[in-house]
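Can anyone check this?
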Amino acid sequence: MIDKRLSCVASFVRVGAVLADIGTDHAYLPVQLVQEGKVPRAIAADIGEGPAASARQHIREAGLSDRIEVRVCDGLHGVAAGEVSDVVIAGMGGETIVHIVSEAPWLKQKDIRLVLQPMTKSTELRRWLFANGFAILEERIVLDGRHIYCTMAAEYDGGEAPTDPLAPYVGALTPTADNRPYFEQQRTYLTQRIRGLRCGEKNDEAEALSAILAQLETFMNGGEDQ
């Protein structure tokens, strides 16, 4: 069985999709999805020979070697256009995810879904997606112990980036109680960043972030001013 974090990722994968799981490690996610019948087949990719060997063993033990293929490759370099419909990249930093996606131009198709779960830098990931024509369809926050995980489903639509400066900080999330821990984390980050900018006498940048912080606090309260 997969944990809460990966269960959230799995819920964003479409029924009947052909899956590429990038950074698959033990291939827990593709094995689960194929066993459930949610996806017919999958590619389990990892940059390391060690994780790939673990993935092959797990897949073999599950009797799914004919439906899940393991590939050793850097990001999506081992996956070609037209092979898959849903791409999962989870368990990595947001900047690493940006690097992987940016090196696979074939992802800019409206029938390709990205399911992304950044461990860090979620704001930077959203900013890149928006700037490169991707729309965020849905997001969900999962708490697992002390960890806060943000999972997003995105696809290319060629649209313009949102002009609201708050958008990269909240994405498609709504101001619910379940999402509040993530917003509080963002508030803490902004507060610390503003303090650092003011100490460095970068007052213009500090004021710009202060305006975003005020927007975030209003957003957290359901759009009502404090």
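Reply from J.R.: I decoded it. Residues 74 and 207 are 40 Å apart (CA to CA).
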